[in-house]
Amino acid sequence: MRDYTNQITNYIQDLTDALNKLDKNEINAFINTLEDARLAQKQIFIMGNGGSASTASHFVCDFNKGASFGMENPRYKFICLNDSVSTLTAYSNDVAYEDAFVELLKNYFQEGDVVIGISGSGNSKNVLKAIEYANNNGGKTVGITGYNGGKLKQIAHQSVNANVDDMQISEDIHMILDHLCMKTICNSRKNG
Q1: Contact 140, 33 (CB under 8 A)
Q2: 46 beta partners
Q3: Three-state SS letters, the chain
Q4: HSE of 170 in the Cβ direction (CA atoms, 13 Å)?
Q5: What pLDDT was estimated at residue 71?
Q6: pTM of this prediction?
Q7: Residue 19 burial (CB count, 10 A)
Q8: Full pLDDT tens readout for the chain, 192 residues
Q9: Cβ pair 164, 14 in contact under 8 A
Q10: CA-CA distance, 121 to 147, in Å (whole number)?
Q11: What span, in angstroms and rounded, lies between the C-alpha atoms of 51 and 145?
């Protein structure tokens, strides 16, 4: 049998170190943004590419069901911009990939809605265009990033940055962020 225990130990240690460096104030502000949107009955749009697209879909499930089930109104109104493969590929093919999210956003976005972009590098052009559109049309924007946050950290109103130079660990942290926010909101509702 091959022995990968050293690599396993190193990965777990790198993930632990990155988790310990997270800015709890950024996370707290993000949780407040999510709850403020719910209470104001605003929509929350979320998007990403690749692994970040999967995380965006997971956020939608965890909040539209996990954090909303059994709750009286107002409930969460999460919409994932990367979940309609047919619409996403139609815009990508017929217009441009970098316009796919912003064009979808134009169908539903209303002033005061929240738009969340997930990008490990912080430099995904299709995410940046959607964030810029929301910024210019009265939205509240959040960038969830890795590495140094890239341009997304600079242009979003709020940021939650994993601040680690590793795409997989960044994506791990973004998924943990989803569960951390959901559990915090659900537990505070039970206890408060």
Answers
A1: yes
A2: 80, 116
A3: CCCCHHHHHHHHHHHHHHHHCCCHHHHHHHHHHHHHHHHCCCCEEEECCCHHHHHHHHHHHHHHHHCCCCCCCCCCCEEECCCCHHHHHHHHHHCCHHHHHHHHHHHHCCCCCEEEEEECCCCCHHHHHHHHHHHHCCCEEEEEECCCCHHHHHHCCEEEECCCCCHHHHHHHHHHHHHHHHHHHHHHHHHC
A4: 23
A5: 81
A6: 0.96
A7: 15
A8: 999 999 999 999 999 999 999 999 999 999 999 999 999 999 999 999 999 999 999 999 999 999 998 888 899 999 999 999 999 999 999 999 999 999 999 999 999 999 999 999 999 999 999 999 999 999 999 999 999 999 999 999 999 999 999 999 999 999 999 999 999 999 987 776
A9: yes
A10: 6
A11: 12
**What integer pLDDT is reported at residue 192 of this predicted model?**
61
In the numeric block, which tokens belong to residue 112? 């005061």
Residue 99 has which token pair?
């316009």
Q: At which residue do the structure tokens 């990508």 appear?
A: 92
First to last CA, the chain: 51
Residue with tokens 């815009």: 91
Structure tokens at 106: 């134009």
